[in-house]
Amino acid sequence: MEKVINTKEERIFLDSLKDIVKSARKYAYSSICFAQVQSNWLLGKRIVEQIQKGNDKAEYGKHILKIASESLTEEFGKGYSETNLKSFRKFYLIFKDYSIGQTVSAQLYDTKRQALPAILSWSHYERLMRIRDKKIRDWYMNEAAEQMWNYRTLNRNINT
Asked: Is 111 strand, coil or helix?
């Protein structure tokens, strides 16, 4: 049954309701994306801390990644392969000078470290990690966040 909208006021009212729902969904999606980015950064950090304890990095690192992958996969399912864990470690190492997941008030006091843009997805960061030059990588990261580039736009701009 189709509803008939009788007045301009009803149209404005209904459009405002739809805008509220759209905004909430967009916020929920970006929160989920940032939670994944934050989780991956923190996993990378913890793996680096464990491996860098003065042990023989090559063998100990392989062992740690293997047992971590098996345990996380068993508990949480796909997404925690040794390859992914290596990516998380690389992510942390490349972006360790940034803060992540801090509240706005904490960021105000941490003037030494720029926060990673919460608007970018894990796919954005995976693409950014392939840029070796820090200045260029930072420029693309900031531009992607400021201009709200989706992954395809970021990738196209880097490739051209």
From this structure: coil
pLDDT in tens, 31-64: 888 899 999 999 999 999 998 876 666 677 788 8
Whether 69 has a pLDDT exceeding 60, the answer reads yes
The DSSP output letter for 99 is B
pTM for the complete prediction?
A: 0.77
Instruction: Kindly tell me if the per-residue pLDDT of 67 is higher than 80.
Output: yes
Asked if 127 and 151 touch (Cβ cutoff 8 Å), the reply is: yes
Per-residue pLDDT of 97-116, as tens digits, reads: 998 865 444 444 555 678 89
Cβ atoms of 89 and 47 closer than 8 Å: yes
Surface-to-core class of residue 92, CB atoms within 10 Å of its CB (0-12 exposed, 13-18 middle, 19+ buried): buried
Q: Which of 122, 144, 129, 131 shows the shortest CA–CA distance to 42?
A: 122
Q: How many CB atoms within 10 Å of residue 6?
A: 8
Which residue, among 160, 159, 121, 112, has the nearest Cα to 141 in the 3D structure?
A: 121
Whole-number Å distance between alpha carbons of 140 and 156: 11
Nearest to 101 by CA among 112, 90, 113: 113
In the three-class reduction of DSSP (H, G, I as helix; E, B as strand; rest coil), residue 120 is classed as: coil
Classified as helix, coil or strand, 115 is strand
| pLDDT at position 28 | 84
